[in-house]
Structure to design on (578 residues):
């Protein structure tokens, strides 16, 4: 039975990593299983004794969508039916997958109604590279009202 | 494992009209479904015989600012002070309520149980509905990246197009088929075929003195990006299920007691449930749900039936792609045969195995917490030859299935029915 007191990687570590512009995966010290984004318990053997490792946010598009009716956050950023945004599932070079916005220009549709980003076609298999987009998060402060915090989001660009 | 200690029968089933009803809240919708259900029980039934309520509801808390619906609905049904529980597994909430009720009867805890599902969705503006639905997906790893609920299924759609050569026209064919069925269902929210919708838009344009749209047929209409825009490429407006208010109920009892209330009970011979990773990117396949495969295998094994025995099914078509994912996960068609099946009409009302005779979530509507039970209501009616209008299938249905998915596939529950 795995010793749960050994739990030593947390979701917060992953999120702090992104805020510091580092993509973390976790590796099982027992079976060697690699997990990206970092998980807190091994997805293969349920061992809690994991270690963080840094991984390059590079890979290829596994699948994607271009969203016209977005989440509140994206609508506030100015996206709409007329100005969609693209989200891709990216297969990293080690085979693990992660979800992020694909940036690099406006989304338009060609004569076959297939999507383009900045005039370039978006295709499954296209190589992409990650970068970190800085933003201010407003959090409801417990004392003294809302507070701003510097955050980062991992986004991708066509190579 | 995998056997019911007592066999379970459905003796009554009914639903409210599905739609957008500014004047009706959860109470009103549940009451309407309850009345229709009680009226469907053939004989000798008194409401006071019900021993417990299992109610599926996804998020009345966020949709209406009212939580804790089970005792509220039990009170309406005159069940107070009997046990009343709410189940929440996103869009599979009431499919799970049904499963829990079956398990309770099989275990001998109760002999007669009321199962319900209810959701009141149309009070919130679109952005609020989008956010509430997206809260069934992974907040940290998907929602923050901008993925919406249609977006998650769109990811599966793009993956399937890339792997199997599925086209956007295949998705359109599923929408056209389900609208055609829904047009025959008086309880459906959108009981209009795509052609009828197209023609009413043409008539409206003429009336307003606007240029007359020159759509040649349904397909041409669905290809028009102004009439059928991408909500989340490649899923368009007509690929998405509706935002709906509605409720549905079932009365379950044991096989032995069922004959007291009806000569034609419908038996639930298999129940199965499964789970899948929360985030789509963590799955081994981008166009299959292990939750559904596991739920189906569990239900088939318990029922002692094979996919080929299933004559009709209500599958969870929250998006048109979801119907294709279901066809494969349930083993009803080989994954590489699904495009052909859709193109050749295998799943149509007069096809070899009709899917979603009710109109499905696409046309009947998708009040998320009511959907699982509403699927069982359709199967109950079809198996007893009581489906309204011309949507009653032409053959005798001996074996049927319902498939109810929660979120982007994190939950799935499958039931198998026999006469
Ligand atoms: Zn391990």
């Amino acid at each position: 039975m795995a010793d749960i007191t050994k739990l030593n990687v947390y979701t917060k570590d992953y999120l702090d990593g992104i805020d510091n512009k580092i993509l973390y995966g976790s590796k099982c010290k027992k079976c060697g299983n690699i997990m990206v984004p970092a998980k807190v318990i091994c997805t293969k053997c349920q061992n809690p004794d994991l270690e963080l490792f840094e991984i390059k946010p590079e890979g290829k598009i596994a699948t994607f969508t271009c969203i016209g009716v977005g989440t509140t956050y994206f609508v506030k950023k100015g996206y709409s039916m007329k100005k969609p945004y693209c989200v891709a599932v990216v297969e990293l070079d080690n085979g693990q997958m992660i979800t992020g916005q694909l940036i690099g220009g406006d989304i338009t549709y060609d004569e076959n109604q297939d999507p383009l980003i900045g005039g370039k076609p978006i295709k499954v298999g296209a190589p992409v590279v990650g970068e970190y987009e800085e933003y201010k998060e407003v959090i409801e402060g417990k004392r003294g009202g809302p507070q701003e915090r510097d955050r980062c989001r991992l986004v991708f660009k066509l190579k | 494992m995998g056997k019911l200690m007592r066999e379970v029968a459905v003796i009554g089933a009914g639903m409210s009209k599905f739609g957008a009803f500014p004047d009706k809240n959860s109470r009103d919708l549940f009451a309407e479904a309850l009345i229709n259900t009680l009226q469907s029980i053939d004989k000798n039934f008194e409401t006071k015989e019900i021993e417990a309520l299992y109610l599926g509801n996804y998020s009345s808390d966020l949709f209406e600012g009212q939580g804790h619906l089970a005792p509220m609905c039990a009170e309406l049904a005159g069940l107070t002070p009997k046990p009343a529980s709410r189940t929440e597994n996103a869009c599979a909430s009431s499919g799970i309520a049904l499963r829990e009720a079956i398990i309770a009867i099989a275990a001998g805890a109760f002999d007669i149980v009321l199962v319900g599902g209810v959701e009141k969705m149309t009070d919130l503006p679109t952005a609020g509905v989008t956010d509430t639905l997206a809260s069934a997906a992974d907040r940290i790893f998907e929602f923050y990246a901008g993925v919406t609920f249609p977006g998650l299924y769109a990811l599966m759609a793009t993956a399937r197009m890339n792997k199997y050569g599925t086209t956007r026209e295949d998705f359109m064919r599923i929408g056209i088929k389900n609208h055609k069925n829904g047009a025959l269902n008086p309880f459906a929210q959108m009981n209009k075929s795509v052609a009828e919708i197209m023609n009413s838009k043409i008539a409206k344009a003429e009336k307003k003195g606007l240029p007359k749209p020159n759509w040649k047929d349904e397909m041409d209409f669905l290809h028009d990006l102004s009439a059928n825009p991408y909500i989340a490429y490649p899923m368009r407006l007509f690929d998405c299920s509706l935002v709906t208010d509605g409720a549905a109920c079932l009365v379950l009892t044991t096989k032995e007691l069922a004959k007291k209330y009806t000569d034609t009970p419908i038996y639930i011979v298999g129940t199965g449930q499964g789970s899948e990773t929360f985030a789509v990117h963590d799955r081994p396949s981008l166009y299959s749900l292990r939750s559904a495969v596991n739920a189906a295998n569990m239900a088939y094994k318990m029922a002692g039936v094979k996919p080929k025995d299933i004559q009709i099914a209500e599958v969870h078509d929250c998006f048109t792609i979801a119907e294709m994912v279901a066809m494969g996960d349930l083993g009803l068609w080989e994954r590489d045969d699904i495009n052909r099946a859709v193109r050749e009409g295998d799943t149509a009302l007069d096809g070899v195995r009709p899917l979603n005779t009710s109109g499905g979530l696409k046309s009947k509507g998708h009040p998320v917490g009511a959907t699982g039970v509403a699927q069982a209501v359709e199967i109950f009616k079809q198996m007893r030859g009581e489906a309204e209008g011309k949507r009653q299938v032409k053959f005798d249905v001996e074996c049927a299935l319902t498939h109810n998915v929660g979120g982007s596939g994190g939950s799935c529950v499958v039931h198998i029915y026999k006469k």
